[in-house]
Amino acid sequence: MITTTRLAIGSLIVGFAVLGLKAVAYWLTGSVALMSDALESIVNVVTALVALIAIRVAAAPADTAHPYGHYKAEFFSAVVEGAMIIVAALLIMNEAWKGLMAPHPLDAPFEGLLVNGLASVLNGLWCSLLIVWGRRLRSPALVADGHHLLSDVLSSGAVVAGVLLAVLTGWYVLDPILAGLVALNILWSGWKVVTSSLSGLLDEAVPEEQLTRMRTVIATATAGVIEVHDLRTRHAGKMTFVDCHLVVPGTLTVNEAHAKCDAIEQAVKDEFGDVTITIHVEPDSKAELRRTLSLTRDSTGVGI
After folding, report:
1. How would you class 290 by CB atoms within 10 Å of its CB: exposed for 0-12, middle for 13-18, buried for 19 or more?
2. Considering only CA atoms, which of 268, 277, 259, 276 is closest in space to residue 223?
3. What residues make up the domain containing 97?
4. How far apart are CA 130 and CA 93, in angstroms?
């Protein structure tokens, strides 16, 4: 079975392999653009290691000091990855400037481009796997790593095309210019990774489409509920936390009210997977029909 830990270990192995290939490509050609590609691969290895550590921490069970678990560790990993991407972009800009001041012909360009292209193919296959399985496993660290590699694949393709153009035309100044453009692309990628991770650290609610589905599931999970209000959500890694207020007839026994809560909790877990839900039960005298989150009602009369 594919797990987040296995994918993280795989990213580390692939990262080392791609780094080796791109280093060979730079050694063969002396291209500043190919060197920038190799520099980004160093970041890939470091971020893959950070992601692996974060995933292992996030998998640790809840304890006395962390009663809600360690799921947010993956968001910290993604922030670190974004910061590393930005650092790589600045390093590449520095090298691009040096190359722009002193452009030079490239050695063994076609051999180097072939090796670099092989590294890009390997990266492309792996980033697709990371993004698909990262979303299935709801792992921010893996998804961030996958998008980082995707930006690497796109920039590598542009590098190969640009270096080839420089060789064919003799305009070797294209080499450092291309490296600078790669740096800008990487910088934008790093910024997106950081901002998306910060939303999780700040307890951002689940997307509106998912929230709408959740309201429907809660409203139809059990009969005899007068109202559900103050529905709140937040996500931390693969776990979603939900809390709401449940209004039931005051004549219900504690056991009956508890059974309705269990039915709602199970329905939400069946629909959304890894969910921790907390329900506050209120008698009908506390009904707040004007404060419901939606004006729609299903056949059972439950406002949600």
Report:
1. exposed
2. 259
3. 4-201
4. 28
